[in-house]
Amino acid sequence: MGSSIVLVNPNSLSPPVAPVALEYLRSALDQRGLRCEIIDLNPVGDGRLDFLRDELTRAAPFDAVGVTLRNFDDAASTTQSFYYESTEAVILALRRLTPKPLILGGAGYSVAPRSILERTGADFGVVGEGEFSLVELLIHLDEPSKHGSIPGLVHRAADGSVRVNAPAAGDLKALHRRRCPINGAFYHDALSVTAMAGLELSRGCPFSCVYCVEPMIKGREVRRRSTAQLIGEVEELVQAGIAGFHAADSELNLDLDLLVDFCGAMSASGLNDELVWCGYALPRPFDEQLARTLMRAGCRGINFGIDSANDRLLKSLKRPFRQRDIVHAARCCTDAGLTFRFDLLLGVPGETRSSLEETFALVRRLQPDQVGVNIGVRAYGGTEFGDTFQKGRQDPVDLFRPTFYVQQLEDGDDVERYVDELCDGDDIFMR
Ligand code: B12
Ligand code: SF4
Question: What is the number of the ligand 2 atom nearest to the C-alpha of 320?
Answer without folding.
Answer: 3
